[in-house]
Amino acid sequence: MARLSVTINGDKRTFALNERGLQIGRALDNDIVLNNVIVSRHHARVQLRGRETWALDLGSRNGISVNRLRVKEELLHDGDVLQVGPFEIRFEDRAAQSVVLDDNQYFPLASEGKQVSSGELPELVLDLKEFYRISKRLNSFLDLHDLLDAVMEEVQRAVPAQRSMLLLRKNDELVPMIIQPPTTGDVALSSTLTRKAVEANEAVLTRDARLDFAGSQSIISANIRSAICAPLISEGRATGLIYVDSPGREQFNEHQRDLLAAVANLAAIHIERARLTEALREQAQLRQNFERFMSPNVAQMMASYFVQHGQLWEPQELIVSVLFADVKGFTSLSETLSPRDVQDLLNEYFHEMTEVIFSYHGTLDKYIGDGIMAVFGAPQLAKPIDPEESAIQAVDAALGMIEAHRR
Known about the structure:
With about 400 residues, the protein is of the alpha+beta class. The protein has helices spanning about 130-140, 145-160, 190-200, 210, 215-220, 255-290, 295-310, 330-335, 340-360, 385-405, and strands at about 5-10, 10-15, 20-25, 30-35, 45-50, 50-55, 65, 70, 75, 80-85, 85-90, 100, 165-170, 175-180, 185-190, 205, 225-235, 235-245, 320-325, 365-370, 370-375. A six-stranded antiparallel β-sheet has the order 2-1-11-10-7-8, with no helix packed on it. The chain has a five-stranded mixed β-sheet with strand order 4-3-5-6-9, with no helix packed on it. The protein has a five-stranded antiparallel β-sheet with strand order 14-13-18-17-16, sandwiched between helices.
């Protein structure tokens, strides 16, 4: 999974990149808010295009740079630095672009990296003390990316292998999160082992894959000799995989299979916790953005829907009631006040009137000078709203606004 990291006021922050992309700027409705006069309100955007990640200048006053080169848009690679005003934003994407589960494909095994000694791999004992140590360590991570790094360190500690990878399920597709040693191209992974592990919901060991899966072209092409594939199980379903293999004479054994299964079970628990934490954080940010325009309960429902489905619902044609309100004699009044007094007056007025609109389930559409436009009867989330009911809500809100203004 790709992410952006940036230091804001001395605090290093990381932002996971999702299908919506990440918008960067000074305004509060951005995903990454950079409060600096050099940064435009809506300065830049980092977004996905298929399997590629691009940085785009949104017509900002001071532009953007990638690796110190001024660009309008640029394809990002792992380690690239995006410059927005005085802020350096690092792009991180250490996994391969994709994993292809296809028995007609193969992947080359890297000869570099740590070599496993000849003969039988050393046995390790995962006693209760070690089990507690791993669990305590994984529990200390809140950021999903840092947690996955720690998981793979424990995998290598428990089952040394020439190659290992961690994949998570996303939209019914296994997405590579970490591959060791790193690779830049697509990786073809045999479906033979992964399918068996997912279907059985348990770790699968092959001492000699060429014998155990004699008909698999991908295993033969890749020269896989010994491999273990352990599913990450959450609520009885495989939400990902941890995979290790070796092309040499070294053979994994049942003990190492059990070790990897134990680490995978622990990892699945903490990965699910980190995912939930990330989802709650995203939902809180979305709710905060929505609350600027609608009542808190509607904002909560919209944020929850977006987190669950990755998008808002399709456009609807509805009969709604629209309320317009402004300050009588505002032009003449503003001529007698200083600019600061006008600002304070409007801020207080908008705050009070918006609270009244929200209390009658209205949605703020916009502020127009000293005017307010609000909509009643949309969005319709839980159940349809009768047009008469929305009209009554609008009238009640108007009366409430008059009463609040008198106070």
